[in-house]
Task: inverse folding
């Protein structure tokens, strides 16, 4: 499974990283020193049918807690630093995919039914009418 297929299945967006590879961005925690630089959590395609999650925290305790959750979920820790690391998982396993997205903090797009869209459009029309009266 490719990262674009994984993203479509889990309703998340892909972006290009600095190298031009598609990634799923998670929570960006560090101020960007240069425009276009990405620091923070992200999911990437590792190869041989596996995907990876890169987590970068500001404290050692947060990485230790995340590492325990990942190993309990069946992930393989690939790199283990003081406050950051990477783990590999099987993208075909839905539970591992959901856990990876949750820990990385990726934004999942919600699916709306036609009735929900109509109700939101009606609420927006009422709000706009009230604003201009």
Result:
């Amino acid at each position: 499974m490719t990262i674009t297929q994984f993203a479509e299945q889990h309703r998340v967006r892909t972006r290009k990283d600095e190298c031009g590879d598609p990634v799923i961005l998670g929570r960006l925690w560090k101020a960007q020193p240069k425009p276009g630089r990405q620091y923070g959590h992200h999911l990437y395609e590792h190869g041989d049918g596996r995907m990876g999650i890169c987590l970068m925290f500001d404290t050692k305790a947060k990485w230790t807690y995340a590492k325990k959750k990942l190993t309990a979920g069946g992930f393989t820790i690939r790199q283990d630093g003081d406050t950051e690391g990477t783990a590999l998982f099987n993208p075909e396993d839905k539970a591992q995919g959901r856990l990876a997205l949750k820990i990385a903090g990726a934004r999942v797009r919600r699916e709306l039914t036609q009735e929900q869209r109509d109700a939101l459009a009606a609420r927006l029309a009422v709000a706009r009418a009230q604003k201009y009266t």
